[in-house]
Write a structure and sequence with these properties.
The chain has 130 residues and is α+β, with helices and mostly antiparallel strands. The protein contains three helices and seven strands; from the N terminus they run αβββαββββα. It has a seven-stranded antiparallel beta sheet. Helix 1 (9-16) packs antiparallel against helix 3. It is globular, with a radius of gyration of 14 Å. It starts with 8 loop residues before the first helix and ends with a helix.
Amino acid sequence: MADECLLDRAALTGLLGGPPVAPATNAVVTRTDGTRTRACFALADGVTVSVNVYTTNRGTPAGYVAGARHGSAVTGLPAGTSATVLDTVAGPTLQLATARYLVTVAVAGRTPSRDRWRTAAVAAVAAAPR
């Protein structure tokens, strides 16, 4: 997906705990081994949100979310979607399944509330291509 910035300002502000210092932007990170990853980043007061959008090579996006055994399910989402919040090295991370994509939203520097995760998931679903 060319633009992984699926979250609107309200969803980002909720995850960051305050307004972003600049508009969210797509960026490419080059690792020491030469591999590259693209993601959308937003920053505010020592907190970072990153959004990644993937297609799955094996299984379905919903299968990945269902397989996250240590996650905490996010409820109240649009039909045909599912999500869970996982504790990861990068910080709490939302895994969201749409019919077509697996979306991850990682927050480093704070732990958003359940309502903030739900708001972010609904915003991402609304912005993701069908």
